[in-house]
Amino acid sequence: MKVWKRLRQDRFSFACLIFLGIVVLCGILAPWIAPHAPEALNVKMKLAGPSLTYPLGTDYLGRCILSRLLWGIRTTVFLSIAAMAATILIGTVLGILAGVCRGWIDACIMRVCDVMLSFPGEVLTLAIVGVLGVGIGNVIAASIIAKWAWYTRMVRGIVSQYTDKNYIRFARVCGCSKGYIIQKHLLPGIAGELAVLATLDTGSVILNISALSFLGLGAQPPTPEWGMMLNEAKEVLITHPWQMAAPGIAIMAVVAAFQFLGDGLQAACDPRQTGKRPAMFLRREKAGGKMHGTSES
Amino acid sequence: MIRFIAKRLLLLIPMLFAVSFLTFVLVNLGGSDPAEVALRVNEITPTEEAVASMREQLGLDQPFLRQYGDWMLGCLHGDFGNSYVDNEPVAAAVARTLPNTLRLAGVSLAVILVFSVTAGVLCAKYEDSVGDRLVRAFIFLGTAMPAFWAGLLLMWLFAVKLALFPTSGMEGASSVVLPAVTLSLGYLSTYTRLIRGNMCRNSRESYVVYLRARGMRERTVMRHIFKNSIQTSLTALGMSIPKLIAGTVVVENIFAWPGIGRLCVTAIFNRDYPVIQAYVLLMAVLFVVCNTLVDAVCMVLDPRIRREQEAQG
Description:
The complex is a heterodimer. Chain A is mainly α. Chain A has helices at residues 2-9, 11-28, 30-33, 65-101, 103-117, 121-132, 136-162, 166-173, 178-214, 226-235, 245-269. Chain B is built from 14 helices and no strands.
């Protein structure tokens, strides 16, 4: 609860949280608040500018851009969040398994992770989409497959950090079962760091999924998806350049909000590192200790 | 130290095998039968006979490990098989497109190096000034902006409105500008932030205080800080070279750049498995080799890492 309190004090992060909440709400309520059906064509009004009936204008088939944007929240944002949730679930389960059991289970999981991580994520996603075929479901699957190994390794790292802590040794000496230790001691410890990572990463998942849809590998028409809307806007770039404004701004705003929120969450979870706005003239003054240790590796 | 680098290089071999095996398995796990796909692509109705003869022709009737062995041997000889679509050797298509991609990635790398180092150093030097804040705002825009949108905006502004550069294709030197800038935007913000952060952190270290106490000129102090903070940034940059090359996919498709990323996307649409396989393998090998090289360079440059490694080994 302390985290929540600190997050509320950080006005900017809190604003991002509220913004994301509104976006999610709009996505849920899309069928009721969207002025038109996202697939409803009106060829007479194609590429029209903003008007009362079409607040953001229409696209090249005369579909309402605002409605497509709102329905697109379901594809772009919801599916990205779902992909992230699945990735974290897999990563946490395998990571804890590897970190707690050690031995050959650990070795097996980690070697598989090593191989998975030797591919650049983008290439792995492309490869999986190439194999499974084009479609938004496959893109989501690819994004999960490309990311789970990274989270598994991360969680295992955190777990092995915690297992040497005295309170967990104490719990073990007291005869607590493994399940109890995981549930009571490990999970709460991991949750904070995972929440930060996941929030920061959700933005990049949104970027990835919309990029693949932009290439035509993800969502297929007529499903409304922000990346695909940009792809359609590209076709009329020269004659109607404002077509690409709405989906682009939407993606950027949501991704930026996730990033700011992630940064805020990090500061709220670990206030010791709150060197957010470094004092202005520190450079001239005596150096006050090292910031986070010297090497990044 | 040479021993440790040699060890890393030896470790590369099983790694490369694992990577190539995974590539092969990935493509063969796909839901559809490659033989059927190969027939469909050429608009032949996949009758049972046709599929069977195609399987034989493609060597798909062999046991799985044998197939992998044959494919691997071929790859080692630079033979990635033939494309299902036009029967052109994949190696030829790769040889045609890869240089274009490398050129694009090379120009982007130069852009990233020049601009991120300049911006990072200047920002650290004038920390919290108006310019620094502007650059930081730009950094945030750069990380949150989808590359394809940035590309479209650049295309609209510079190619359509101002007509300074061609919208797409690869004719003349000016056509590389827009794709390269688009490609470097995301990295530019990452590395500017990294270098700026490193510089700021290093300038609070005690050796800087010592240098100042000795009455060194500001320029000398800056030189020391710069030298110390640039190392980690350069290794990070080295690690992202393969990412940069792999990341050209989107940019190449926006600007119709005839590179390997575009080849791969076309292959995905056509379900042209040999091309996809070759692309994935090439990128993975590039990634693994680059990482090892960067590690080695890192060890040569930074005695702290060297000691750590030697303590472990």
